[in-house]
Design goal:
This protein is mainly β and 122 residues long. Helices cover 3% and strands 43% of the residues. It has one domain: Immunoglobulin-like.
């Protein structure tokens, strides 16, 4: 079964609290081993190149390469964000979605239903 999950404050007790106004946050991505279709993320069975979009702002240039685990730093001012998880391919046209959700920072978890776990930490 395939899933993606965005967890806000899930690790708050061990990592401290997250201040919302102009905060630098780390978004940790843990990708599933395959796309929802069961195929590999990249051609030839390659690992994904994960990145995120937050409220439409792309962090593609901050993507990690050939890994199932990635941490991307963002600066956000809203207490609720739309977070999309993507796998970068050779061209932007071929990028694969791993799901999206609207996640409030105070929420325990936000589900996307496809391809990745995402932790928001300070």
């Amino acid at each position: 079964m395939f899933r993606a999950l965005v967890l806000g404050f899930f690790l708050a007790s061990s990592l401290g609290t997250v201040s919302v106004a102009n905060s630098e946050l780390k978004v940790k991505i843990v990708m599933d081993p395959n796309k929802p279709s069961g195929k590999a993320w990249d051609a030839g069975g390659g690992k994904p190149d994960p990145y995120i979009k937050v409220d439409g702002k792309s962090y593609r240039s901050s993507r990690c390469k050939n890994t199932f685990n990635c941490t991307i730093k963002i600066t956000e001012t809203d207490s609720s964000m739309t977070i999309e998880v993507w796998d970068a391919d050779m061209t932007r046209i071929g990028d694969d979605s791993a799901g999206q959700t609207v996640c409030g920072l105070a929420a325990g978890q936000c589900k996307t239903g496809q391809g990745a776990l995402v932790y928001i930490v300070r």
